[in-house]
Structures are given as structure tokens and as C-alpha cells.
Amino acid sequence: MAPSEPLFKRVAVIGLGLIGGSLACAIRRNGLAGTVVGTDQREEELQLGKELGVIDQSAASIADAVRGADLVVLAVPVRATRKVLEQVRPALEPDAVLTDVGSTKSSFVTDVEAVFGGLSPYVIPGHPIAGSEKSGIRAANPELFANHKVILTPPDDVSQPHLARLKALWEGCGATVLTMSVAYHDEVLAATSHLPHLIAFSLVDTLAGEDENMDIFRYAAGGFRDFTRIAASDPVMWHDIFLSNRDAVLRVIDHFTHDLEQLRTAIANQDSATLLRVFSRAKAAREHFSKMLSGQAYVTNNSEKQVTFRLQPGGAITGDIRVPGDKSMSHRSIMLGALADGVTEVKGFLEGEDSLATLQAFRDMGVTIEGPDDGFVRIHGVGMHGLQAPRGPLYLGNSGTAMRLFAGLLAAQPFDSELTGDASLSGRPMGRVADPLRAMGAVIDTAEGGRPPLKIRGGQKLSGIHYEMPVASAQVKSCLLLAGLYAEGSTSVTEPAPTRDHTERMLAGFGYHVHRDGATASASGGGKLTATNIDVPADISSSAFFLVAASIAPGSDLVLRHVGMNPTRVGVINILNQMGASIEILDEREIGGEPVADLRVRSAELQGIDIPEDQVPLAIDEFPVLFIAAACAKGRTVLRGAEELRVKESDRIQVMADGLVALGVETTVTPDGIIIDGGQTIGGGTVNSHGDHRIAMSFAVASLRAEGEITVTDCANVATSFPGFVELAQGTGINISAEGAE
After folding, report:
1. What whole-number distance in Å separates Cα of residue 450 and Cα of residue 57?
2. 621 in catalytic set
3. Which distant-in-sequence residues (6+ apart) come within 8 Å of 667 by Cβ?
């Protein structure tokens, strides 16, 4: 829909080739300017532009086009920019926006500074990431920029109102606008656009010179045609680009040449391990190529998507299901498999974004990992000292577990590393692992308040310590034990209450002894890990939503298969049983050192209880959905000693209380817990999950006992921890739909 008032009165487009013509056409079609004036040194193109309706007016000279314009767009070959700017300068209005569409930004800025004597706040370099092998005014397409990115590289002192108008203009043409620095733009484009074009030109030229060139092109498959299509691009334009962005292009050519030589050597030496490592790493990166620009190669950024759950009230829970694999164990299986000698095979791996981020981080450190393929992963371990320096920061998405465990693992590596995450993870405290690691000899820098990113200095010698944990945390314990594998002497951790012991059990499974003495776990440095096979049990935290759902919904009868029953994780079952739940534990068995069972749960009349404090650490992640159970129970439920809930993905005590109030359920929040009087009516309403997957899923469960429709906003991160939740919930009887999900 066109704006009521055009963004610009008069737009001058200098150069009516593919990009300039398409932009002029898009501005006209979308009513973004009062008048679009075009000029081009080719008279026939200018006339054609007028005849085809690409522009409103043609101008005989650059000065005539620019005079009176409040936006001037240079769409000329990069190496013609300075000459054109010299003609623009005398006619340019004092507060007009001056921009361009060139593929290199440093050269444009250099030319502007040379002609104007500096960079004004109204000069905003731009680059639409769109194009075609076609050129000229006949190729002008007003839809060219739809669903494409446009990069703007404004100066530090840019006029914000002018920047906002230029951004709105590009968005009005259907583009997504990003901003970055000039230097970063040129580095990124050298890697993602300029180098591929150079390779395509070079490859076609090389093959055209081969003796059997006709057959090479005759029998070429679709992949060859797709890759070399860009060699049909405008030679003059690309000649200009390479010369203008010389330094960045040379850097990326040198990098590529070095890596290509490594592949040549691997083929010559029949080095299958190197080939498999490079190819599997590249395949994984390619599958999420949209994240390559920010070094987040595997992870899709769900937080950018707006997902809303809509839930109709009522329903009964029935079926026979297996929820996805345990996230804690999926993380650890990759970590220990990577550090082991030999090949580790993992079944039941959780293909959620957090676990995939861990997997990609190890690929970035030189570990060959095949899969995941329907939960199956094969890890070619590199041994305790085989990790390689990553090329950039290791991006860990939304996973606090991964970041804290990686901190311990990387503290003793010979190379520097940096751990980053999404906006949610970047706000979470990491001092509780950084401080004890520093006591062991690690050098770690954090952002303000001990928050990510974590910058870890390599080459540090660690010494074992004894650490008394002030707050029970499996993540802190695991971090220090992993660092202890590399430390001199013994590292021991005493916990104030039992926490999950997956790290200790899995280390034992890989042949590394962890000594347990009451509340203290200890490991000595200098050992080695031996590859093993792991069958990851279904996640009890994910099962908890269905345990509560079947307990509170009348007429329910549900079987959950292959659920992990680690004694440090069964707090949710213990608490529900104390509340009067009907949970049968069937076919108990042990797989890979971890106890597993099938669970049958049927609806029951729950009673409010004082939750025993010794169960709190054993159910710390399950409390959001236990709050729903408490709201549906008869009588009062009291939780104490759960301060850790306030520093999870959200302040889970307050966010759950706010959500319950939104549905008409009153609670009393305390510093370390909550008091919930059960039996209140759960009404309809809107709940903000604050991007916390467990909050979102808990209120999905609440709908079973609600009297009206519940809307839960900000649910994108559910896919992070529980892929397939919506489909599984629908299949068992929850009336849920997800809007905005892929």
C-alpha cells in the first residue's frame, strides 16, 4: 500500500541499468516519491526508460537530474563513481540524501571524500543484494528487491531522520534493510559474492580452454550450470568491483587458495579423514547459509520469527509416544565423543537448535561429525588434545548449558576462543563458572556483569581445586569437572544438594573415572576418553509437560516410552506422586549407564503439597509446568528454595505468576518460590512467555483445564528445546495451533 505522503519529493537516479532502472520502477510503482527523474549516458536507454514508464522524467545531464532532488542515487559502474560525483556536486541540494547501489563501499566513501572534501551526515552508502545476468533498462524489474536484503553503511554521525527515510524507501520496494560498517560490508561481500563470481569466471575460462571443451559443456549437469550461471554477468561491472575491493578480495582469495591446497594434498595422500571433515562441515554450514554472515553457521535464529500459540479449552490426553532425546545428554554426547579416541555413534540425539549449535561448534574446531540423520550422529573423535582453533566466535544460540560446559572445556586449550549466544543467552550470568575457572588458572574475559561473550585465552596451565558450590548447579559442576580433565592434580566439586549427574555417568561410559564421595565428585587430569556408543533416552523435562497434562485432564491415559530415569532428574515424578498422581513405571532398564523406563500416566485428583526442598534441584526445569499442576490441585502448594528459577531463560517464578494472573489465577510470589492456592478457575486470556520455551509449553498444558481460549505469545524458542512439540501435543489431545511457525 502506497504511503499517503511520498517519502521523497524528487528522486534522481543516475544510471538506468538493471539496478538503477529496477529501483526507479519500484519507487514509481509503490508511490514512494513525487517524481522520479532518470539520466543515463546512453541516450537510447534514457528514451526507453521514459517510454516503458520506468521514470517520470528524463534529464539531459547529471546536473539537471540532481537539481532540486532530495534523494540522489548513483547506479553507475564502481570505477565511474568519482567522475559522476564531480558532476553531482555543484547541483546537489544541501540536505539531500546521497546514496549508491555499488557492490563495494570503501571505494564509494573514498570517492565522496575526494570530491566533497569529507563525508556529510547525508551520505549513506547502500548495496542491494539482488541482481540478474541480464542488464540494461529492458531488464528493469520493480520486484527485483522483494524479499532481498539491502545493506546500508551509514557514517557514525549520520542524520537519523534521513537514514530512516532511505530505509523506509528500500522497505517500500520489498527489501529487508541491514546496517553495518563499510569495512565489514566489503569483507563480507568479498567472501560471499566477489569470490564466487571470480571462481565462476575462472572455472568457465579454464574449462573452455580444455581440448574436450565441447563435451565438457554438452554433458554438464544442472549443478555445473547453476554454479557457472554467474559467469554470464557483466564483465565490465565485475572488473570494476574486483579492482575497487582489491584488499578484501585478495585476503579471501589467499584464504581460499590455502584451503584448496589442503584439499589437493588430502586427495593426493588419500587422506579420507580430512576430506570427510571439510565436506561434512561445509554441508552443515550450507544447510543454514543465511547465518554465515554472523558466524552462526548451523543455527537458525528462531527469535526473529514471531510464533503465537492459540489454545482452545478442554481435551483428554491419550496415546503412546516417545518425546525427543534428552538435551543435557545430547550436548554431552557430542562433547565427550569429540574428545574421545575413536568413533562414537549416538542414537536418539535431540535435533533442537541448542544441541545443533554444540554440534556445529565442534565442527568449527575441526571435528568430523556425520549427521544428524533422524537422531543418529557419528562423531570421529580427535582425542583430548586434537581440537583446532575455530575461525571465529563459537555461537551457542540460546543454550546456557553449552556455554557453561564449553567454558570449562576451552579453558585449557592451546588456542584463544570466544563464546557468543543469542540476545537471551547474552543476558545470563556466567560469573559462576568464570570465577572458579579463574581460580584454576584460566584467563576469561566477560562483558559487564559477567555476561557473554566469554573470551577465553588459550595456552593456560590449569591446576586442580576443591570448589564448594554456593548454589546447586549441574552446569557449574560439569564445567569444572571438564576443566579438571586438563588440570594438574585432582579437581573436586561439593554440591549443597544433589544435581543431575549425566556428566559423571557419561565420563565413566567413555572410560574416564570420576570418584564420588557423598556430595563431592572429583576427577584427576591427564586421562583419556575412549569412544563408545550412546542411546540418548527421551528427555524427562520434555516428558514432564505430558505427565502433568495427562494428570490434570479428565479421562486421560498416556504411555511415554524410553524416558530417562536418572535419579538426579526424577523430582517431577516424585513431586507429582506426592500430589496424588497416577504414574506407573514400567520395564525399568539401564542403557549406557543411564536408567530408562516407560511411564503410564492417568488422570488423577491432585492435592496441594509443601514441595520438599530436597526435591527442588531434582525438578528445577520442570517447575513451570508443576505450577500448572498446583493450580489444578485441591488445596495449597508451597515452593521454597528455588532461587535458581529466577536466572533461567526468564525469571520463571515471576513470569509464571504473571501468566497465571492473566488467566485469573492469583498467586503469592516469594523471593525463593511461590504459593499457589489450587482450585481457582483458569480463564481465557493472553500470556507473554517472554521467549521462554518452558513457559510457553506450560500454558499450552493449562488449556486442558481452562474455560476460555488462551493465547501465548513469543513462542519461537519452543523449537529450540522441543522440536515437534505442537504436532505431538495435537496428536495426544491438546487443542493447539501455532501461528507464524514454519
Report:
1. 59
2. yes
3. 627, 657, 660, 661, 674, 675, 676, 677
Q: Which residues contact 552 (CB under 8 A, 6 or more apart)?
A: 603, 606, 628, 629, 632, 701, 704, 705
Cell 536408567 locates to 595
Give me 630's grid cell.
Answer: 498446583
| Alpha-carbon span 143 to 140, nearest angstrom | 9
Backbone angles phi, psi at 287, to 5 degrees: -65, -20
Q: Can you give the pTM of this predicted structure?
A: 0.62
Which residue bears the cell 546512453?
42
Question: Which parts of 611-708 are beta strand (E)?
Answer: 636-639, 667-670, 673-677, 685-688
The number of angstroms, rounded, from the C-alpha of 552 to the middle of its chain's C-alpha atoms is: 35
Query: CA triplet 303, 308, 314: central angle to 5 degrees?
Result: 140
631-641: burial string, b at 16+ Cβ within 10 Å, e else? bbbeebbebbb
Which region among 102-116, 203-217, 420-434, 526-540 has the lowest average model confidence (pLDDT)?
203-217
| Pick from 224-228, 333-337, 467-471, 493-497: least confident | 224-228
As separate numbers, helices (DSSP H) first and strands (DSSP E) second, the chain gives 26, 31
H-helix segments, 133-245 = 160-172, 182-189, 195-208, 213-218, 222-228, 235-244
**C-alpha to C-alpha distance for 409 and 429, rounded to whole angstroms:** 18
Q: Out of 111, 422, 539, 621, which one is annotated catalytic?
A: 621
Question: DSSP for 353-402?
Answer: HHHHHHHHHHHHTT-EEEEEETTEEEEE---TT-----SSPEE-TT-HHH
What's the first-to-final CA gap in the chain, in angstroms? 26
Residue 479 near residue 486 (C-beta atoms within 8 A): no
Any bridge partners for residue 521, and if so which?
493, 516
- Tell me if 46 sits within 8 A of 38, measured CB to CB: yes
Residue 101 confidence (pLDDT) above 80: yes
Contact call for residues 483 and 522 (beta carbons, < 8 A) = no
As a whole number, mean pLDDT of residues 379-399 equals 91
pLDDT at 5: 84
* Cβ–Cβ < 8 Å for 737, 694: no
